[in-house]
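Q: What does the assembly look like in three dimensions?
Context provided by user:
Components: two
Sequences:
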Amino acid sequence: MPTLLIFRNLLRHKLRTALTVGSLAIAVFLLCVLRALVVSLDAGVRNSTSDRLIVQSAVSLFVNLPASYLGKLQAVEGVDSVARLQWFGGYYQDPSSFFGQFGVDPEEFLDMYPEFKIVDGSRERFLSERTACIVGRQTADRYGFKVGDTVPIIGTIFQRLDGTPWEFQVAGIYELDSIVWDETTIFFPFEYLEESLEGGTASGPPGSGVIYMHLAEGVNPVNIAAEVDGLFENGPQRVQTTTEAEFNAQFVSMVGNIPFFVTTIGGGVLAAILLAVINTMLLSGREQRHDMGVLKALGFSDWAVFGVMLGQGVVLCVLGGGVGIGLAQLSAPEIAKLLGTMFPGFEMTSEILTSACTLSLGIGLLSGALPAAATRKLMAVDAFRRGA
Amino acid sequence: MDSACALSAKGNQNMSSTTATRAVVDLNGVTRAYSRGGERLVVLDALDFTIEEGDRVAIMGPSGSGKTTLLNLIGGLDKPGSGSVRVAGEELTELSPPELARWRAGNVGIVFQGFNLIPVLSAQENVELPLLLTRLSRSERRAHAAHALELVGLADRASHRPGQLSGGQEQRVAIARAIVSDPTLILADEPTGDLDRASADSVMALLARLNEELGKTVVIVTHDPLAAASAKRSVHLDKGRWKSDGESA
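A: Here is the predicted structure of the complete assembly.
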């Protein structure tokens, strides 16, 4: 019956309960989404491995490395393979249809990234055809690209001299095992770009933006990074070698204090909802003071009435939190689509949902504990006196 | 009638195990004072009081005379500043709050002036409340509550909530709740205070029946001389002291 009392008391003011559950649901939903945004920002950092190093110009990421560096890096002891990567920076149809495009050394790149799974089409075709490309699942779904389609990309950094767009044939669609990259990018053979530049059919800066190195097993990445940096200390282009995690972290830091702002907003939302629920529960506690006095007069223990009040807070918050968590989980795929390439790693992880559950329960316990403690101390005669 | 038999069983056993004149309530030198605005207000002043088993006593007196405080002390809802409060064989001043709660659940049924039913529970559920503190199964609890409601003539209102009942019906539900666990003692604080004459008479008749047919000891605090007249004995409090003590009829 005390359990029945918990639910009946919550239904005593249906509108108030509904509004509180609604506000909790919105707050928890918002917190889940904000948390997922923060997590997505550094998903690439968390999923990085230490056997991949990235060599870039020490001056800037936007200064290309000379072509001759590839062989020198391959020759470093402990380096398994190397792959060039060049940011292409074009767009599909119009500048608002943006997704990343990279020229890569296909075989070396896919070998050092086993996380890439070609789920549709052919890896071999990507490796063998000069104008082939692989497209991330999200971009393929967004624009309806299928294997065999030709994707015209209008260059901005690299432009074809005849004014026509670059054309890439879709050799495969890829998905990722873990968020080391995103599923929005198009990769095409670096050689296609290189030959076009060397053959005079296109214009743009020579060299490659960065060179990825895959290390042999058991090699210390710190030593290799120092060796590589030392190798080019006297030019022609000084380099900076970083682990994959450090490299990805650069991009997170480029977005400035977004994680801080998002966390602060989340904290504000949390504090506001906590105060609102505490207020609601204190109000309920005052309203039920007389009833709790009756229970005590009938012989119910202090802890039994404590449980009735605490239970109301917990049920209220778990209900609101549950609705919010459900909404967050259901809407996550749509939100990810809306965010598109801005937050490619956006997903509602089980960690986020578990945290939201714990948080809801915590708010419930805290908001219920205050009126419950007051009720526990209350003497029946005082309840009747004040309630009269 | 079956209901009456079921509820009276324990009461009769209690009566048979003791002498007819055993004191159920025995207060000696009880003083209760409150501090109000820095001043000490003595509500009960070295009061002695004895109620024998099977008695039906009306406690009368003007507002502030200490009637409700006395009833709270007898019911274990309050503790005296000094003196001894022995009820149903237990010295209440020596019990801790949890022990007092357990003692109340087993020995006392309380009827309040304002009915004090839980508004979100039905009449049946309100009456079942004290039985949650027993080892009875759910079906046994339901059966006992139904019997108690039948006894007070409200079997057909079992599913109604307090807001759907009249004042007289609410008070009868409160009486059903007070007797459902078959307590030794029924304490009623102004049970007719919020009722019209007809309902008040009905409630007093019900309390008299519980006393006479089931052998319950009944203590009634009242302002109402007509209600007091239905008791076997009435006593008068004034400023925390007895004014008189004698047979009312």
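Follow-up: Chain B has one domain: 2-16+54-79+95-247.
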